[in-house]
């Protein structure tokens, strides 16, 4: 009789079994039936497919990271920040080529998707009680060892709960039993009304072989993605239970919170990090309590207290600084301090039937963002447009109402201000100017991407699910001093008369970053108009075709 080798495939095994079938007087019909079944060509093909799938499963490559596109962008930005060698220029050209960008974008899309089978949705009339009572049978293989789990009775419900899973034990190795699961039966014997000690005795009886345990899984809170709004260094945190177990992160990092069982210390991983081990981070509640205590003790300024004016950042007209809470959507509660900890986020990509996202430019002193905005729009007016502002100044002969400005009376302008119709407004040479919410909506209704440049104070007004703004902070590259500037920087510094101007530019960028940096999606370092325009154009193009992290409240219906 032929002998099967260890590497024999299923289709080879099937062929061998078919050849070994011999007619038997007592079971002739059965043998003929089996031979016909095993000889079926479609079954042989199915076995070959199964074997190939198993082979692919063993050799399947896995992505090293899920954000190759953003990594390539960071590398390109780093290369552009200084002088480049011939090899670095070649690498930069390669990273900026549309073909490589497309390949990396496809890689990230595939790497971020889950290709596991998707179960059909539950029917609308499905009763939750039935779902809660579902029992999962778990087979635990034992080998003269304890099961590696302890149980307790829940005082509130009376249910027998898995209290602890011992690392390395049978329960832990299975990966199917978790702390909080309700124990319902052992080898078919109900344990609902048994005491924990009786159940333990029942489990001890089976010292070898396997044990079938019926459990009702704990309904676990799904892991959340949170964007960090502050920097955290565990080695500097004296309150952490274990500094070595802490997870360091920077503002803007996306954290996957895997458990919130501990109200003080969450466990999280950085999204895209190859390290599979989770680390400890302060919980939102704990971090807010710490910040509140520091504010009470005077070591932390009140985030709601008046801030230093940023009036030097835009000199075209004097902007109003009036607080306009509740004027058009989500706004923070003025009565409670807003501590920057975490914000739950999710991936969002604009769908074909949706209005384009709003693009908001903010800039520090010397950024000249209006010039940058106008240049990008002039290159492609069919895709991009500005929100036409309102003004009370008289119309000039060559101007058209609704093109350069919406010309209104002072009475109408004041009424619109009282009705909170402007995202910002101000005065210049005794005339009023303002950008309205309706002007933005008018651009988006034409399926164009609206680009606005505003004072940073207007960001909170625009951060709504309606606009889903993408915020770009533009700041010029400021040399350390006038004595150490390159020829490339001469055009930027030519108008500066004193070293104090450089310090003012640097300080305005720092101030905006400290107060509003957590609301910024991208920082654009402007060295010259041409390169800044090209970078902005690239950002706008990716915004239309790629997915980005946004607050989950913007997409939750």
TrEMBL record:
<feature type="domain" description="Guanylate kinase-like">
    <location>
        <begin position="356"/>
        <end position="541"/>
    </location>
</feature>
<feature type="region of interest" description="Disordered">
    <location>
        <begin position="297"/>
        <end position="339"/>
    </location>
</feature>
<keyword id="KW-0728">SH3 domain</keyword>
<comment type="similarity">
    <text>Belongs to the MAGUK family.</text>
</comment>
<dbReference type="Pfam" id="PF00625">
    <property type="entry name" value="Guanylate_kin"/>
</dbReference>
<protein>
    <submittedName>
        <fullName>MAGUK p55 scaffold protein 3</fullName>
    </submittedName>
</protein>
<dbReference type="InterPro" id="IPR036034">
    <property type="entry name" value="PDZ_sf"/>
</dbReference>
<dbReference type="InterPro" id="IPR008145">
    <property type="entry name" value="GK/Ca_channel_bsu"/>
</dbReference>
<dbReference type="Pfam" id="PF02828">
    <property type="entry name" value="L27"/>
</dbReference>
<dbReference type="InterPro" id="IPR050716">
    <property type="entry name" value="MAGUK"/>
</dbReference>
<dbReference type="Pfam" id="PF00595">
    <property type="entry name" value="PDZ"/>
</dbReference>
<feature type="domain" description="SH3">
    <location>
        <begin position="221"/>
        <end position="291"/>
    </location>
</feature>
<dbReference type="InterPro" id="IPR020590">
    <property type="entry name" value="Guanylate_kinase_CS"/>
</dbReference>
<dbReference type="Pfam" id="PF07653">
    <property type="entry name" value="SH3_2"/>
</dbReference>
<dbReference type="InterPro" id="IPR036028">
    <property type="entry name" value="SH3-like_dom_sf"/>
</dbReference>
<dbReference type="InterPro" id="IPR004172">
    <property type="entry name" value="L27_dom"/>
</dbReference>
<dbReference type="InterPro" id="IPR036892">
    <property type="entry name" value="L27_dom_sf"/>
</dbReference>
<feature type="domain" description="PDZ">
    <location>
        <begin position="137"/>
        <end position="219"/>
    </location>
</feature>
<dbReference type="InterPro" id="IPR001452">
    <property type="entry name" value="SH3_domain"/>
</dbReference>
<feature type="domain" description="L27">
    <location>
        <begin position="6"/>
        <end position="60"/>
    </location>
</feature>
<dbReference type="InterPro" id="IPR001478">
    <property type="entry name" value="PDZ"/>
</dbReference>
<dbReference type="InterPro" id="IPR008144">
    <property type="entry name" value="Guanylate_kin-like_dom"/>
</dbReference>
<dbReference type="InterPro" id="IPR027417">
    <property type="entry name" value="P-loop_NTPase"/>
</dbReference>
<feature type="domain" description="L27">
    <location>
        <begin position="61"/>
        <end position="118"/>
    </location>
</feature>
<dbReference type="InterPro" id="IPR014775">
    <property type="entry name" value="L27_C"/>
</dbReference>
């Amino acid at each position: 009789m032929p002998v099967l080798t260890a590497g024999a495939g299923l289709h080879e095994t099937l062929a061998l079994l078919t050849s070994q079938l011999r007619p038997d007087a007592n079971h002739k019909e059965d043998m003929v039936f089996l031979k016909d079944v095993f000889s079926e060509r479609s079954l042989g093909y199915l076995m070959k497919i199964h074997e190939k799938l198993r082979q692919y499963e063993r050799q399947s490559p896995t992505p090293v990271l899920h954000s190759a596109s953003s990594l390539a962008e960071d590398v390109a930005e780093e290369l552009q920040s200084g002088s480049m060698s011939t090899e670095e220029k070649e690498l930069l050209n390669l990273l900026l080529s549309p073909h490589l960008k497309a390949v990396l974008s496809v890689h990230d899309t595939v790497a971020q998707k889950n290709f596991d089978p998707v179960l059909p949705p539950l029917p609308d009339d499905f009763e939750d009680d039935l779902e809660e009572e579902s029992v999962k049978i778990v087979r635990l293989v034992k080998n003269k060892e304890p099961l590696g789990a302890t149980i307790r009775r829940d005082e509130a419900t009376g249910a027998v709960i898995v209290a602890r899973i011992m690392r390395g034990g049978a329960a832990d190795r299975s990966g199917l039993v978790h702390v909080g699961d309700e124990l319902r039966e052992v080898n078919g014997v109900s344990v609902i009304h048994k005491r924990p000690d009786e159940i333990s005795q029942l489990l001890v009886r089976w010292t070898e072989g396997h044990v079938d345990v019926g459990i009702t899984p704990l309904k676990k809170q799904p892991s959340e993605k949170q964007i960090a709004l502050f920097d955290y260094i565990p080695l500097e945190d004296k309150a952490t239970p274990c500094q070595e177990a802490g997870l360091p992160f920077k503002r803007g990092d996306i954290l996957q919170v895997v458990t919130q069982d501990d109200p003080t210390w969450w466990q999280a991983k950085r999204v895209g990090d190859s390290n599979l081990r989770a680390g400890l981070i302060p919980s939102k509640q704990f971090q807010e309590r710490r910040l509140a205590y520091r504010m009470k003790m005077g070591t932390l300024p009140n985030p709601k207290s008046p801030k230093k004016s940023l009036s030097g950042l835009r000199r075209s007209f004097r902007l109003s600084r009036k607080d306009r809470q509740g004027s058009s959507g989500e706004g923070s509660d003025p009565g409670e301090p807003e501590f920057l900890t975490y914000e739950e986020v999710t991936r969002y990509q604009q769908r074909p039937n949706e209005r384009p996202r709003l693009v908001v430019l903010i800039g520090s002193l010397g950024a000249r963002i209006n010039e940058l905005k106008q240049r990008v729009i002039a290159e492609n007016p069919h895709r991009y447009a500005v929100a036409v502002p309102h003004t009370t100044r008289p119309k000039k002969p060559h101007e058209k109402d609704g093109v350069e400005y919406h010309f209104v009376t002072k009475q109408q302008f004041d009424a619109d201000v009282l009705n909170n119709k402007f995202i910002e407004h101000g005065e210049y040479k005794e005339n009023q100017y303002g950008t309205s919410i309706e002007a933005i909506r008018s651009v988006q209704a034409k399926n164009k991407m609206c680009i606005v440049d505003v004072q940073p104070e207007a960001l909170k007004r625009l951060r709504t699910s309606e606009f889903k703004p993408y915020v770009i902070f533009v700041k010029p590259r400021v040399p350390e001093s006038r004595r150490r500037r390159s020829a490339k920087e001469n055009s930027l510094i030519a108008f500066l008369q004193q070293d104090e101007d450089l310090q003012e530019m640097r300080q305005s960028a720092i101030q905006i970053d400290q107060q509003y940096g957590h609301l910024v999606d991208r920082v654009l370092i402007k060295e010259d108009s041409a390169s800044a325009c090209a970078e902005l154009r690239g950002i706008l193009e990716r915004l239309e075709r790629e997915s980005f992290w946004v607050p989950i409240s913007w997409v939750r219906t």
